[in-house]
């Protein structure tokens, strides 16, 4: 049922086809305000567009109804039909209308006379061998006989989702259980593992190919296609013939071949294998029904097969003996290759290059054209990435024969499955002057980014090879489509490249045919047209960098290659780290490929654009002021308003990076109108950089030298902007909470890249981190440097190591980094029998010790980040978090267990938590220790394990894939259009555009894709703000599941989606479920970041407010106290956020009848506000009012308690004073029980104040909540965008 998600999407999407014109209209000319009427008509059209059809089936039930849209093609209607349970059995058929056969590839609207309520007949076709194979695969999937698939790429449990188990765990909780959470408990690795579940009902024992397969020639002539062997649940074995007319039970046995129909009573036959199974197995129908019910228990999103994205491979996996990883016996598993792609495997061979370039040439005039094109390209990139990654693994494992076996191993090239593979290493000396292997490795990474940017720009007439980079066990492998003519032998004197540098930079080609297309590319990339010189000093004027090459393919297309230098070099970095050859000590920066990021160039361009617009605006103002005063006043007004508009337009433009072209044209058109002298003409603004400065170009004349000096100055200024503005702004924005606080290396990398900052500046970011909040950022940057350096060290040892020895190598490296506290002299556990098979293997890793590994890591950090670690850095690492970072970077899948990082039995896995949580009170630490001391697993591991990791713990290594797939432009336009309309209060049009965007995302990417998860999340947020709470919850739920499956169950994005879902579920009234999601997010936080993440303060605070809504006042205060604790540790005790939390905690304590404690907390809060904001600030005044109220109340309660005590003494009963009985953390139930009595006492002043207090607090906490919620809603939003 792999196709299911696509078709579901398809039906929804095509249904909204007519509306699809809206987004385009919006983005190209923003005239949405006046489009109300059109939108209504569109909506009307859409409603009419969906209509029912009646499908007549050849078997029971003889009739079904489906809803279709005229935009659907007939093959999409087929897909919708076979997904209905009543039509599961059909796979080989055609559709007829009015006696005419329908072509699968025409649109429904093009079929004559096909309208609402039309009758369509499903007619079964004779099978071909291919159709029979497809039918057998489909039936095996449907009846649950497929077992676990052969997969060499995605690893153990790829694309797993935990959402269902998280949700069901909270079904029967009461308030106390819902609020219970062990804040100080260590991170549990089990959080990331799916729960074991009941196995699916078995419908049939096996469906496989018979040993008599394939049919001999004389029987093929009679229509025999395949022979199958089926064993039913009753234990009966049937030999089945697949015939052109269907399937029948034959007379063969295991020893006798007689494939003709069996006589009655066992002579069953049917067109579909599914029908035949119901005939031969009495229990099949019931068990199949149970299987369908079992499958329906899960969320469909959690079980759909992924078609357009790489499923996320978890870094922690259950043990191979677990039921989740059970390996079942299934003879057909090995036969599936034949079933899918035929006897000579030609069904799956594709000409990738031709497919990609033809896709690029598809029309893109109408919205339908664009949707079809983008959807086709998205699927093509997904298929190609999958094929390239599979090929790369085979290349890495030595399974593919090189085309040039006599060359050195790094210089070898391969072609497999029509993909061209080479190593990301300097095998032929191209990068010798730039830094050798390190430079080549970086160049491939930059190239894949460059190709992605070119694909996104989508310039007509310019083609690029699809590129994928795969990192696997220390090797970097580049997979590219084969450009026609790239291997062609050239004539003497003919260059192998038509534009750019040919061999090194000695020869330069400048074929004029490339100039116009390269000019478009360079304009978009802000690259300046500039001169370069060959070895003879001959000048060539190139549009792009000399390193960017143009090749005229033999198919007549212009290809752009080698896109690793689309931005200039970071010259300041190079000059700082330019060490003469003779002085080098191995600690110099490893390569010269230090280019600026394209994002930085875009930021600088936007900044310069804003400055230019303001300058022009001032000039125009002065010009209009200097005009004669006799000019008509009215004209003055008009011109100034035009300037205002223009300035607004300028601002918009500087914000929007991708729509420069459109807006410039728009501005030009407006400039042509009357009064153009009072307008700013954007065509006069120019910003571009020369990417070839500082890279050995030698200008000849004085003019050329002067121009080169000017270009060099521009690039220097860009580098200065990076250091003087971009980096300090980034750090300050995190300090001021304008940016979400990164959670892990991945989110930190994304945020830095978005701001145009290269990761080599991590050391400088660390030096900018001062103050309590930024110390957390400093720790995260240090962790990222360590994990990146470890990746390089591990890569060095793994790169040429035979595959069977890699587990021992990885385990030993991990023991040296993480297990020194348990065993400070680990030895590599290498299987001697394997070692003897590879006598030439370099086993240098076995000599590593924790000390020598640390030295290597320190040296890498000095080289790559120009930063020196403290001597005791290895004692302060967060073990679990660093292990996660390292595993994700190397693609490790490690067996989940109670990792023991130190020799103290109680500190298994949690050593870092104890260190960081040093601030918590001693009692909780003791409790925690006791609980763990008793845990059998920790005792067992402390006795049996001398090393933290064994080779068996390294279950698998998955490849890390970087692809060049562009994002969908049209779906982003619709989303932006919807947002824009809602901001302008055009709610109806806005919502239509948002729905359209959702539909387009699902249609173009398929449902399971990271971009779709982001779209779900963005839309959920907008709907929640529009008060459409149910829709928001549904979208947020989808966002969580899709993110879990595509970016990982413990990715920072998934965690944020869980938090958002918690907010929306709480907003729609289900606070218990909301708390479940919050608690799961906190568990994830412990694994991803460890304790005390700065953004968790808001989360804890929100959870406390949720508990107040559930009237669990006593439980809520523990969450407020926890939030305050984190805040004081992260921000400092005297910070304003701490004061706000003290204010809320005081209210919570008052609600819990802890008036004395409430008074103390409110006084602390008042003192901070007074000290930080002064006595006249509203916050200070409000705290003062509360302080007075609570003081009066405390006095009244104390007086009443004293009277009550005296009365009891007179009666001869002794009770302890109330505040002692209720202690600091008195039982909530007791506090609640006393509340009504206090309220019913007539005449006492405290009765009134408590009553007022509760009302006031409930009102105020609701008010507080709403402000908090707004802040929190804003928080996740920025986080998703920023990370």
In short:
About 50% of the residues lie in helices and about 10% in strands.
Which characteristics define this entry?
five-stranded antiparallel beta sheet, alpha+beta, disordered C terminus
Describe this structure in words.
By secondary structure, the protein is α+β, with helices and mostly antiparallel strands. Helix content is 51%, strand content 8%. The chain contains 45 helices and 24 strands. A five-stranded mixed sheet has the order 2-1-5-3-4. It has a five-stranded antiparallel sheet with strand order 6-7-8-9-10, with helices on one face. A hairpin with a 2-residue loop joins strand 3 and strand 4 (100-101). Helix 13 runs antiparallel to helix 14 and helix 38 crosses helix 45 (1245-1282). The longest helix has 38 residues, at 1245-1282. The protein is globular, with a radius of gyration of 35 Å. The two termini are 35 Å apart.
Cα distance, first to last residue? 35 Å
- Helix tally equals 45
Helix residue percentage = 40-55%
Q: How many distinct beta strands? A: 24
Rg over CA atoms:
35 Å
- Overall mean pLDDT stands at 83
Secondary-structure-based class equals: alpha+beta
Major beta-sheet overview: 5 strands, mixed
Q: Shape, please? A: globular
Give start-end ranges of low-pLDDT stretches.
1-48, 635-676, 910-945, 1216-1250, 1256-1283
Beta-strand percent range: 5-15%
- What strand line-up does the widest sheet have? 2-1-5-3-4
């Amino acid at each position: 049922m792999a196709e299911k998600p696509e078709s579901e999407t398809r039906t929804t999407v095509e249904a909204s086809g007519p509306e699809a014109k809206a987004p385009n209209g919006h983005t190209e000319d923003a005239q949405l305000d006046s489009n109300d009427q059109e939108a209504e008509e569109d909506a009307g059209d859409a409603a009419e567009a969906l209509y029912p059809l009646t499908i007549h089936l050849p078997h029971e039930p003889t009739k079904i109804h489906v809803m279709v849209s005229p935009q659907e093609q007939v093959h999409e209607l087929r897909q919708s039909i076979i997904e209905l349970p009543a039509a599961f059995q059909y796979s080989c058929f055609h559709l007829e209308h009015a006696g005419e056969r329908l072509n699968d590839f025409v649109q429904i609207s093009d079929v004559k006379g096909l309208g609402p309520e039309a009758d369509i007949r499903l007619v079964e076709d004779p099978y071909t061998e291919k159709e029979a194979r497809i039918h057998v695969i489909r039936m095996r999937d449907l009846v649950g006989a497929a077992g676990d698939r052969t997969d060499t790429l995605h690893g153990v449990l790829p694309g797993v989702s935990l959402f269902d188990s998280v949700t069901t765990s909270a079904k029967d909780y009461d308030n106390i259980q819902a609020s219970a959470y062990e804040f100080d408990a260590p991170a549990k690795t089990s959080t990331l593992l799916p729960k074991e579940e009941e196995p699916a009902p078995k419908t049939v024992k096996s469906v496989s190919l018979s040993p008599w397969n394939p049919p001999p020639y004389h029987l093929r002539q009679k229509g025999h296609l395949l022979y199958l062997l089926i064993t039913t649940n009753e234990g009966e074995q049937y030999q089945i013939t697949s015939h052109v007319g269907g399937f029948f039970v034959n007379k063969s046995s295991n020893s006798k071949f007689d494939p003709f129909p069996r006589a009655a009573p066992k002579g069953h036959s049917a067109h579909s294998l599914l029908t035949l199974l119901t005939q031969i197995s009495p229990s099949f129908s019931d068990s199949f029904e149970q299987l369908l019910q079992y499958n329906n228990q899960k969320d469909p999103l959690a079980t759909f097969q992924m078609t357009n994205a790489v499923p996320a491979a978890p870094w922690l996996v259950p043990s191979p003996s677990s039921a989740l990883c059970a390996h079942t016996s299934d003879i057909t598993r090995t036969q599936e290759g034949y079933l899918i792609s035929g006897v000579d495997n030609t069904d799956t061979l594709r000409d990738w290059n031709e497919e990609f370039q033809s896709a690029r040439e598809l029309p893109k005039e109408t919205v339908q054209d664009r949707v079809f094109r983008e959807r086709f390209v998205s699927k093509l990139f997904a298929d190609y990435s999958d094929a390239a990654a599979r090929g790369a693994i085979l290349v890495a494992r030595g399974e593919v024969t090189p085309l040039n076996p006599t060359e050195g191993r790094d210089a070898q090239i391969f072609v497999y499955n029509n993909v061209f593979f080479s190593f990301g290493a300097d095998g032929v000396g191209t990068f010798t002057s730039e830094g050798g292997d390190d430079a080549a490795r970086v160049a491939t990474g930059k190239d894949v980014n460059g190709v992605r940017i070119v694909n996104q720009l989508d310039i007509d007439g310019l083609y690029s090879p699809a590129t994928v980079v795969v990192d696997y066990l220390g090797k970097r492998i580049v997979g590219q489509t084969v450009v026609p003519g790239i291997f062609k032998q050239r004539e003497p004197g003919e260059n192998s490249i038509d534009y750019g540098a040919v061999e090194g930079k000695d020869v330069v080609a400048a074929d004029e045919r490339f100039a116009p297309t390269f000019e478009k590319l360079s304009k978009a990339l802000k690259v300046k047209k500039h001169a370069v010189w060959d070895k003879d000093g001959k000048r060539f004027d190139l549009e792009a960098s000399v390193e960017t090459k143009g090749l005229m393919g033999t198919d007549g297309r212009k290809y752009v290659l080698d896109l690793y230098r689309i931005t200039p070099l970071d010259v300041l970095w190079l000059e700082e780290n330019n060490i003469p050859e003779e002085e080098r000590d191995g600690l110099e920066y490893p390569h010269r490929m230090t280019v600026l990021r394209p994002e930085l160039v875009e930021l600088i361009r936007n900044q310069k654009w804003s400055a230019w617009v303001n300058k022009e605006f001032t000039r125009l103002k002065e010009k209009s002021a200097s005009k004669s005063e006799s000019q008509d006043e009215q004209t003055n007004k008009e011109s100034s308003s035009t300037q205002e508009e223009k300035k607004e337009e300028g601002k918009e433009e500087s914000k929007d990076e991708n729509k420069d072209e459109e807006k410039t044209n728009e501005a030009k058109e407006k400039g042509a109108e009357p009064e153009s002298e009072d307008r700013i003409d954007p065509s006069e603004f120019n910003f571009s950089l020369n990417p070839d400065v500082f890279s050995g170009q030698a200008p000849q004349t004085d003019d050329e030298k002067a121009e080169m000096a000017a270009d060099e100055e521009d690039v220097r200024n860009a580098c200065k902007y990076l250091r003087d503005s971009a980096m300090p702004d980034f750090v300050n924005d995190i300090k001021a909470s304008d940016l979400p606080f990164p959670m892990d290396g991945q989110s930190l990398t994304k945020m830095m890249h978005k701001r145009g900052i290269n990761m080599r500046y991590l050391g400088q970011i660390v030096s900018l981190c001062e103050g309590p909040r930024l110390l957390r950022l400093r720790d995260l940057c240090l962790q990222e440097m360590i994990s990146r350096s470890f990746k390089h060290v591990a890569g060095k040892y793994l790169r040429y190591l035979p595959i069977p020895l890699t587990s021992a190598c990885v385990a030993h490296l991990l023991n040296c980094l993480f297990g020194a506290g348990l065993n400070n002299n680990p030895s590599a556990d290498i299987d001697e029998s394997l070692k003897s098979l590879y006598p030439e293997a370099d086993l240098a890793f076995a000599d590593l010790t924790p000390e020598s590994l640390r030295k290597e890591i320190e040296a890498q950090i000095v080289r790559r980040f120009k930063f020196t670690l403290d001597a005791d850095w290895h004692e302060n690492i967060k073990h679990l978090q660093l292990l996660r970072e390292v595993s994700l970077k190397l693609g490790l899948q490690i067996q989940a267990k109670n990792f023991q990082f130190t020799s103290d039995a109680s500190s298994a896995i949690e050593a870092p938590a104890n260190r960081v949580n040093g601030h918590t009170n001693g009692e909780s630490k003791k409790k925690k220790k006791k609980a763990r001391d008793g845990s059998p697993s920790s005792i067992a591991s402390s006795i049996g394990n001398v090393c933290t990791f064994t080779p068996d713990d390294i279950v698998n290594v998955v490849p890390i894939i970087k692809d060049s797939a562009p994002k969908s432009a049209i779906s982003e336009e619709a989303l932006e259009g919807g947002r824009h309309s809602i901001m302008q209060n055009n709610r109806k049009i806005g919502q239509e555009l948002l729905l359209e965007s959702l539909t387009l995302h699902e249609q173009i990417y398929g449902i399971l894709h990271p971009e779709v998860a982001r779209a779900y999340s963005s839309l959920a947020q907008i709907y929640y703000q529009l008060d459409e709470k149910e829709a928001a919850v549904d979208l947020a739920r989808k966002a969580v599941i899709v993110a879990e499956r595509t970016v990982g169950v413990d990715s920072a994005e998934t965690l944020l989606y869980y938090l958002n879902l918690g907010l929306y579920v709480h907003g729609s009234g289900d606070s218990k479920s909301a708390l479940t999601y919050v608690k799961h997010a906190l568990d994830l936080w412990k694994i991803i970041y460890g304790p005390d993440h700065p953004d968790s303060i808001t989360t804890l605070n929100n959870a406390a407010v949720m508990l107040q809504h559930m009237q669990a006042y006593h439980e809520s205060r523990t969450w407020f106290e926890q939030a305050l604790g984190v805040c004081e540790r992260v921000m400092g005790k005297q910070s304003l956020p701490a004061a706000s939390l003290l204010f809320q905690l005081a209210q919570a304590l008052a609600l819990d009848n802890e008036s004395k404690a409430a008074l103390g907390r409110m006084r602390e809060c008042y003192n901070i506000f007074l000290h930080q904001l002064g006595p006249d600030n509203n916050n200070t005044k409000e705290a003062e009012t509360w302080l007075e109220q609570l003081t009066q109340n405390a006095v009244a309660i104390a007086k009443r308690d004293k009277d009550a005590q005296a009365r009891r003494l007179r009666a001869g009963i002794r009770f302890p004073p109330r505040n002692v009985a209720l202690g600091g953390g008195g039982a909530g139930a007791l506090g609640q029980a006393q509340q009504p009595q206090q309220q019913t006492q007539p005449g006492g002043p405290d009765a009134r104040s408590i009553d007022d207090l509760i009302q006031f607090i409930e009102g105020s906490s609701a008010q507080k909540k709403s402000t908090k919620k707004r802040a929190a809603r804003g928080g996740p939003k920025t986080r998703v965008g920023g990370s």
